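2024-03-11 09:14:02 INFO queue: dequeued item GH92 family glycosyl hydrolase, len=748
2024-03-11 09:14:02 INFO validating residues
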Amino acid sequence: MSKKNILLVLLFPLASIAQKQPVDYVNPLIGSAPSTTESAKKHSEAGSEMKGQIVPAIGVPQGMTSWTPQTRATELKCIPPFYYNDTKIQGFRGTHWMNGSCVQDYGSVTIMPMSGKLNVNTTDRGSDFDRKTEIVKPYYYQVNLKKGNIKSEMTALSRAGFLQFTFSQHQDNYIVIEPNSDEGEGFVEIHPEKNEIVGYNPVHRIYQGFGKPAGFSGYFVIQFDQAFTDYGTWKNNDINAKSVQTQGNGQKQAVGAYAQFGNKIVKVRIGTSFTSLEGARKNLEGEINHWDFSKTRRASNLAWNKALGKIQVKGTEYDKTLFYSALYHTKLTPRVFSDIDGSYTGFADDDNIYQAKGFDYYEDYNLWDTYRAVHPLHTLLEPKVTADMMQSLVKKAEQGTWLPIFPCWNHYTAAMIGDHAIAAIGDAYIKGIKGFDIKTAYQYMRKNAFEVNTNQKSYEEGKGRRALASYLKYNYIPLEDSVWQAFHKREQVSRTLEYAYDDFVLAQVAQKLGEKADYETLMKRAKNYQNVIDPQTGYARGRYSDGSWIRKFDPFAQRSSFITEGSPAQYTFYVPHDVEGLIKHVGGQKRFIEKLDTLFDQGYYWHGNEPNNQIVYLYPFANQAWKTQAKVRQIIKEEYDISAGGMSGNEDGGQMSAWLVFSMMGYYPVCPGTPNYVIGSPTFNETTLNLPDGKQFKIIAKGNSIKTPYIQSATLNGKPFTEKFITHQQIMAGGVLVFTMSSKPKGL
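2024-03-11 09:14:37 INFO prediction written
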């Protein structure tokens, strides 16, 4: 080393000049504790609504299997495997939890190290740990288990995980393997000659499934870097030494296997699959065919930095943590479901094994939530991922005969309302995404919108739009029509509003494909929102089949039977496709603004429920963009922070985080299915999008600070910019959007 370089190192130590990467800002624990925000406390009713329902997911973006410390043993509805406030770790789980949701984990397996006496009971084996010494990164997790003083480390790629345990004792060190089957159908088998344990955990359905088998399992192949000194299986806490196989018979038995080791450090690598043990083995060999833990950790780190680095920001360290943690959360589901060779099990009742050629097959779509901002964010940053996700929806429709509404665990559900696969596919197509079969997609999108499913059995399974017959007959869903074949059984007004929006998006697709008659019909149906928003009160309101409005009516009631998870006042603003028409329908701009102001100023806005997410961006349509600019900043401040409780209610597949990512950049996709993003107020001094074709789009906010949320003027590529929205095409073309910020609203 030259004298000059030695001097530089002395003057600027390497630690101080090393530049932080995007992944270094991510805190995976955000959203894993009950929410601390006021709106969540006020509006949440179910206990799960108070929680972000986030687990710290270790792996890679959209990975098939993530790894998380386990503090809860179940695969029960609305119970994730990790809660921040829990004090004991029961093991380390290969999980398929849908991030931030209220569904269930499935096909999971847990691995737990222990020293001393062998204890296979899930709860009793739990160990205290020191939160202060815990390391939690998207690509790496480390914790010291106090029981036995065991250093535990995890990293992972998409289909394979890598765990490393450092024991402080030199004997009686065990690793326990448990497939987490609540139904008691788990299977494990030990191959001591291979230093290997394999098994599976059959998947079951909720919502439309009513606990029935999903037709596939979560398979795992676990390999160790050394021979076992002892081994055995267990069932319901009864340990069977030297036994090499056990399986539950469906009577709620807990089953598992264990192995004993003599060395201080034990390395464990795990392949997972949804097709077979052979698939799990191939996935392991294809992704982690070595025993170098650091090598896998570096590969996971690189994958996250590549994904998160699509957006670069300049601002405070706090805001970067908030932003990149949110961006991380948007990249957990939908998950890759196909094996490394493209194999995947057929959708719904189709048990054939298919080959995904030229695309990855995805599963677990929180579509009621994620069509709003998660999928538009993928479309902006990851066009190939979006194309694969849309093609996966097409394949589901082909194999199941209907386009799914809310596909989970590779099956139909009617878990939520709406028909938003149409919105996700339509938005991708309208924004120019290539690489999926839009013509086949349109056939099934159209089928969902125009054909009533008269087959009672398949309708109960979740195929077809709920209450479509009434919607077509009345141009709204009357209060008499409850949907008993769905998890949400009434909610007629919300269904009508969401179908009107879906019809609008489908109309845009029809127009682009040259389907003129469909376009005209669907555009008429897109006005159906007018039939459930009472022009006299100016609020969404239940309506009977004879046209009369429900008499007992409070627009601010936190729950109404005809509204989904919210109030009529909140759902009044769910007309993203025709805000100008809504303004006229409720009595003009002045009355519209008064209603918006009432919602925000009197505490009726509930950010934690997704139908509210676009509301703050509606002020520009009534020529009061400055209120959007101020209130977006306020929502970011009040509804998000970087603590474990810093999520305003359920994350719901990344939607709450996607809202934050867009809003901190300075714009939001109010109406997916159109190419427009409504301008808000950028958080950062500078934001750079590194676009897929090598171009860059920069947003510069001059004079930006906490005290300057208002946009005084703007230029796009040096020319004056006065629009209330920027288009997808303008962003993808690259360029520079410059805002001049102020502490006072423009013109006031």
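2024-03-11 09:14:37 INFO annotate: The mean pLDDT is 94.
2024-03-11 09:14:38 INFO item closed
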